[in-house]
């Protein structure tokens, strides 16, 4: 009776943690459903290229495409960009000296149309077609290199064709190579006049100051900016001494806040300093997805549309940078954009300014209750395995460490450590409880698999509650220990069923016999095959998994078309069918390899919810689809096993008769 009450108490703690997680999960779901605006933006450089091919002005082109996109992304221009579009011509001091001596017989240029300035052989001279471009470039050079005290001189050369603005600088080409020189104001004004959003992508510079930021952001004070993105691996100011870097990023955050827009994060492109900036902005952030230009040449239009749509629906992306297909004309491009807009609208989204997600409820008490539920799950698992005292000691130690981290303010570490324990404990607990040595009928086996999945999902729910924070939704922070979360449950369940939960009650004798067992070639081959399967499984987990084969990509695409949300391959095709078969047959030691692969389904479905950037409803539908499909395939597998057994029995009977 005491034993039953103790276990009911542990179950009660788990239920309390689950209800707290359910509340936080529901709040997250509401927040995800409320954020339905997506900014479909075009790359200004590609707009210019397409307009040139179609013999249209940029304004005419944008008007033709209007209604199927909502904004334009402008990359901050570099010197190479200015040279390429004919804005500036760069000459060395030596070249300028030869030109001036040949034309005027002197080595001087008029400075500000007043005094004459000597031409320096070791300087660079930038010759502009428009004065406003020179003024903008001079301003960026003066401010962004303020710490190096560069010399920047403006010249105005009178020629028969009019005044030529020239900028002389002591900076080298190396200094100027990747430096950003702001944005063309006429181009910005054109986009504004058409009622479109503007997204600037700002380049890196090191010595960030308040004056620099005024120059960079001054162009956008009256512009319809929807978000501010960054172009390089490092955000402006990263690389300065830590106190100055922090101040630079804080000032940068203040400037973005003044515009009243979120900062931008480019998916799959980590940028140093972005997490710090996001924290200064209270995680006011949006994420952008784009397809690299080098992939567009070999990508089909349908594949691109699916990829953009899935980015929005499955990963909470709210800015889509649409790349044009090479050589695609205006008419086809317009249809392509229209199909993308329609695809997103069919999913319940609409064009508009992207917005950051709202706030999620937070309290250390919430985390305390959820952590108590996870700890109770671990204690219950060991109690079921007849290790009550050990479980109680480990549970107290683990929960005390978790509580200490919360008390010390190490919230992130506490969240991630307990979340990892949750996804390890509950798949093992579910299989330990419901997998029996007694064979089950088909109906009972299905019911046991469903109950097993529900218990595993409790672990997923607890993890969702622990990681209910925008940092994880934006992938600024991520679930810790992905490989461990996939490997440890498999190893644990093998230990549990081969050693701890031994129906023969001869565990130690089994170990001794195993160590003394003669190794034959067939066992070496079997172990090698299992090792390869395990290696592939581990390589296929995490954010940087191994490449996916062409047939699997085709299967995924087909499942997406049929089911809207495709299930995990390792769940419906491998884990669930084998686990259903094992429940039907009843566990025996000879089935240990089947168990090692069958538990993959439970481990995978729990880890599905570790992708916090994926909407909760998507993860739930994915799990449901994986379960019912896995049950169907499992029934087919059971049928094949029955048929195979009958055929084998007949063969044995024939052999016995002939003998």
Describe the structure in your own words:
This protein is of the alpha/beta class. The chain has three domains: 2-29 and 359-647, no CATH class; 37-76 and 185-351, TIM Barrel, CATH 3.20.20; 81-176, no CATH class. Strands 1, 2, 9, 10, 11, 12, 13 and 14 form an eight-stranded parallel beta sheet that branches. A four-stranded antiparallel beta sheet has the order 3-6-8-7. The protein starts with a helix and ends with a helix.
Short précis:
This protein is 60% helix and 10% strand. The chain is α/β, with parallel strands linked by helices.
Tags for this model:
8-stranded parallel sheet; 659 residues; 3 domains; 27 helices; 4-stranded antiparallel sheet; alpha/beta; single chain; TIM Barrel
Question: Into which percent range does the helicity of residues fall?
Answer: 55-70%
Query: In terms of structural class, how would the helical and strand content be classed?
Result: alpha/beta
Tally of distinct domains:
3
Sequence stretches where pLDDT stays below 50 over 5 or more residues: none
> What global shape is seen?
elongated
What is the radius of gyration computed over CA atoms, rounded to a whole number of angstroms? 32 Å
Supply the number of helical segments. 27
Q: Beta-strand level of the residues, as a percent range?
A: 5-15%
Q: How many strands in all?
A: 14
Note the main sheet.
8 strands, parallel
**What is the residue-averaged pLDDT?**
89
Distance between the termini: 58 Å
């Amino acid at each position: 009776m005491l034993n039953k009450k103790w276990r009911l108490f542990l179950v009660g703690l788990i239920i309390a943690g689950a209800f707290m997680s359910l509340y936080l999960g529901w709040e997250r779901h509401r927040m995800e459903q409320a954020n339905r605006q997506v900014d479909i933006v075009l790359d200004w450089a590609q707009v210019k290229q397409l307009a040139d091919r179609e013999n249209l002005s940029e304004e005419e082109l944008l008007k033709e495409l209007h209604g199927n996109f909502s904004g334009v992304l402008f990359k901050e221009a570099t010197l190479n960009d200015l040279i390429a579009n004919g804005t500036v011509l760069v000459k060395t001091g030596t070249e300028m000296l030869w030109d001036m001596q040949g034309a005027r017989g002197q080595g001087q240029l008029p400075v500000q149309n007043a005094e004459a300035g000597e031409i320096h052989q070791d300087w660079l001279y930038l010759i502009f077609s428009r004065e406003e471009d020179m003024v903008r470039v001079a301003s960026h050079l003066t401010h962004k290199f303020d710490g190096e005290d560069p010399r920047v001189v403006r010249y105005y050369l009178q020629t028969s064709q009019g005044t030529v603005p020239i900028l002389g600088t002591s900076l080298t080409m190396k200094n100027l190579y990747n430096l950003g020189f702001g944005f063309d104001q006429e181009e910005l004004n054109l986009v504004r006049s058409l009622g479109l959003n503007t997204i600037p992508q700002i380049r890196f510079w090191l010595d960030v100051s308040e004056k620099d930021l005024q120059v960079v952001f001054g162009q956008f004070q009256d512009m319809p900016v929807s978000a501010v993105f960054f172009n390089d691996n490092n955000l402006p100011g990263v690389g300065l001494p830590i106190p100055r870097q922090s101040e630079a990023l804080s000032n940068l955050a203040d400037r973005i806040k003044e515009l009243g827009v979120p900062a931008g994060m480019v998916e799959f492109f980590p940028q140093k300093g972005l997490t710090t900036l996001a924290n200064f902005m209270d995680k006011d952030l949006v994420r952008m997805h784009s397809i690299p230009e080098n992939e567009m040449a070999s990508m089909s239009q349908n594949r691109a549309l699916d990829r953009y749509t899935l980015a929005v629906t499955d990963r909470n992306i709210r800015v889509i940078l649409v790349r044009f297909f090479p050589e695609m004309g205006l008419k086809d491009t317009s249809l392509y954009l229209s199909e993308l807009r329609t695809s997103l609208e069919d999913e319940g989204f609409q064009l508009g300014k992207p917005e950051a997600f709202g706030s999620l409820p937070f309290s250390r008490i919430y985390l305390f209750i959820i952590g108590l539920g996870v700890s109770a799950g671990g204690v219950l698992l060991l109690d079921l395995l007849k290790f009550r005292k050990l479980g109680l000691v480990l549970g107290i130690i683990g929960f005390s460490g978790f509580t200490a981290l919360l008390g010390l303010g190490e919230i992130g570490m506490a969240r991630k450590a307990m979340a990892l324990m949750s996804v390890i404990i509950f798949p093992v607990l579910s299989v330990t409880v419901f997998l029996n040595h007694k064979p089950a009928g088909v109906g009972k086996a299905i019911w046991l698999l469903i109950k097993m999945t529900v218990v595993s999902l409790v672990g997923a729910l607890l993890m969702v509650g622990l990681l209910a924070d925008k940092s994880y939704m934006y992938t600024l922070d991520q679930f810790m220990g992905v490989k461990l979360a996939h490997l440890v449950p498999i190893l644990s369940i093998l230990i549990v069923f081969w050693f701890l939960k031994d129906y023969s009650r001869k565990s130690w004798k089994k170990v001794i016999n195993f160590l003394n067992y003669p190794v034959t070639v067939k066992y070496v081959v079997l172990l090698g095959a299992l090792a390869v399967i395990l290696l592939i499984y581990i390589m296929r987990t995490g954010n940087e998994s191994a490449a996916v084969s062409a047939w699997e990509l085709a299967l995924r695409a087909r499942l997406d078309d049929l089911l809207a949300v495709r299930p995990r391959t390792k769940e419906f095709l491998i884990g669930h069918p084998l686990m259903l078969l094992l429940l039907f047959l009843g566990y025996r030691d000879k089935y240990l390899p089947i168990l090692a692969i069958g538990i993959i389904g439970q481990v995978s479905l729990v880890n599905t919810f570790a992708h916090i950037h994926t909407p909760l409803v998507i993860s739930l539908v994915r799990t449901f689809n994986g379960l019912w499909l896995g049950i169907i395939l499992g029934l087919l597998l059971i049928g094949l096993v029955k048929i195979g057994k009958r055929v084998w029995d007949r063969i044995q009977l024939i052999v016995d008769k002939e003998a």
